Predict the structure of D,D-heptose 1,7-bisphosphate phosphatase.
Amino acid sequence: MAQPGVAKRRAVFIDRDGTINEEKEYLYRPEAFEFIPGVPEAIRILGEAGFLVVVVTNQSGVARGYYGEDDVRSLHRYMDELLLTAGAKVDAYYFCPHHPVNGVGEYRIDCRCRKPMPGMLLQAVSDLGIDLSASWMIGDKLADVEAGIAAGCRSAMVLTGYGTEEQTKLPVDVPVFKDLLAAAQAILTELPD
C-alpha cells in the first residue's frame, strides 16, 4: 500500500504477450519465451527515466486449465533473470487468471481485472502509489488500450503481436508505434528536462 504523504510515481504499464515477448498462444514455458527485439532496452530506459515498469497480462490459459498460476509466476521470474543481464527490471507483475466464458471452476468469472477492465492497473496504483495522469499503458490489442483509458492513463499501441490487425479498431487519438522501444523513446522525448 502506498504511504500517505509520499509523492506518487509515474508508471508505464505494459502488456506481456505480443508486446514484450513474441506472441505464442498460451505461453508459460521459459524455453518458449523470446523477447521482441529492443524490449530489454525499452524497459531499461524507462526505468532509468524514473518510470515504474509494471506488466499487466491476461492469462486465460490458467482459466482454461492449460497451466497454473505458479507457471505464470515462474515465467516472470525467468523474464527477470533475462532482463537483469540487460540492466533492466520490471517493478511488478499483475496477471488475470480468469475468463468469463472459457474458464474452468473458480476461474470462470466475469472479473474486474481482465483487460479491457482496469482492475490490474488500479491494483498497481493502490500497491505502488502510481499517478495515473502521468502514466502510460502500452499493448498490442484494443483491450490493452481500453484498460489504460478506463484507468485514467494515456494509452498507446504497438504493431508487434496483434497490433497490426488491432490498430484499425483504435480511437483516432491513440498513438501507434512500431514496437515497445519506439514507444518508450517517444514517451521519454515528452519528459521535461
